[in-house]
Amino acid sequence: MSFDQLSDLPSHNYGVLVEDEKDARRLLWLVKEIGEKKLIASVEKYNKKHPENQPFVSKILKWHRLKVPVSVFAPVNIPIYQVYILDHIESSKIKIGFTGNWLSRVSNFSRNRSIDMFDLNRSVAVFYGNKALAEEAERKAKKEFHSSKTSVPECIPYGAYGHKEWFNADVYDDVLEFIRNFDAPKERNFITLHTALNSDLWGIDKDSFDS
User: Fold this and answer.
1) Are 152 and 166 a contacting pair, CB within 8 Å?
2) How far apart are alpha carbons 67 and 57 in whole angstroms?
3) Model pTM?
4) Which residues pair with 191 in a beta bridge?
5) Where are the domains of the chain?
């Protein structure tokens, strides 16, 4: 939600000084917490003592001994459910997985190593949107290609939770076709790791990846 979209606030902001989106979010929360009448009364009380200045949101909050929850002005992480394939170049192995934040998972797998350990164009995430369906697709893909299951590449760090679901890369094309068509009238869209690293879809700075 952008600053301009906080339409529940009147243009005069109840006489409170609003300098940015954070102020607007806190003021909107305050109105819902104490009500308009009490807020206006507080502003009028302030103006009698300081007619030359508008009160800051923080001043009104302090008067009422209230603290705004961080969630009010912090960004909300909305999961983007996907089934993904990571193609590890050196070992000729692929990982099949399911996640709500693909780049965060990739970052864990490549910790202390270059992201180029993965083929950036063959490593892909297929969009699902529905968590339960994505989990089912991952589970059935692993079952379908169980005969090609193999060990985890040695470079995957301990604690990255990426030590399962690795398969020989020779089934890559079949796996991609399977997860793109699973329970779908037409092939599902996907994004390559190369494209994902150069977008802000996951809200992760690509510079956070070691290179």
Assistant:
1) yes
2) 11
3) 0.62
4) 125
5) 3-72, 82-208
Question: Please, which residues have CB within 8 angstroms of residue 77's CB and are 6 or more apart in sequence?
Answer: 101, 203
Q: Which of helix, strand or coil describes residue 188?
A: coil
CB distance 26 to 61 below 8 Å:
yes
Q: Measured between alpha carbons, how far is residue 153 from residues 91, 170, 174 in Å?
A: 6, 16, 21
Measured between alpha carbons, how far is 176 from 125 in angstroms, rounded to an integer?
Answer: 9
Q: Give Cα 74 distance to the centre of its chain.
A: 12
8 Å CB contact between 27 and 19 = no
pLDDT tens string 151-181: 999 888 766 667 788 999 999 999 999 999 9
Per DSSP, the residues of 151-180 read PPPTTSPTTSS-SS-EEEGGGHHHHHHHHH
Residue located via tokens 């709500």: 100
Q: Closest by alpha carbon to 195, among 127, 97, 101, 120? A: 120
